[in-house]
Design brief:
single chain, alpha+beta, two-stranded antiparallel ribbon, 2 helices, 7 strands, globular
Length: 131
């Protein structure tokens, strides 16, 4: 019996204007806002982030160590899933693949303002269609 997929990926869409650019972002607030809007409209996004050593030891709270983190395309070293935004904390919520022993049950709150660790630099939205 053939297995029929429940959903089919129909397209991928780069969010924002920072893809494949190495210069500083002219409008950082717009980059972060575009990421928030894509998250609200499309749901979870694939993003790449810079992972400085201090992030390896993250356990809870809002990670805001911008001095330790790069945010240009060439700084980004690890892919995660951007699953939400907490307006009260002004933080993006990422889900990592390092197991539930890391962070807050496998997730982390990354400060949105300032694009900490490049979380808003290269978001990718995947479009799916139910079969």
């Amino acid at each position: 019996e053939d297995v029929v997929p429940f959903t089919k990926m129909t397209a991928c869409e780069h969010v924002g204007e920072q893809w494949n650019k190495e210069e500083e972002v002219a409008d950082l607030a717009k980059l972060v806002a575009d990421t928030k809007n894509a998250l609200a409209f499309h749901g979870p996004l694939s993003v790449s982030i810079d992972v400085p050593q201090s992030l390896y030891y993250y356990q809870s709270g809002v990670y805001d160590e911008a001095v330790d983190c790069g945010h240009l395309n060439s700084d980004l070293t690890h892919s995660v899933t951007l699953v939400g935004y907490d307006a009260e904390k002004d933080a993006f919520i990422i889900q990592n693949s390092w197991s539930t022993a890391w962070g807050d049950n496998g997730a982390a709150y990354i400060k949105a303002t300032g694009n900490v660790c490049g979380v808003a630099t290269t978001p990718l939205a995947v479009h799916v269609q139910k079969q």
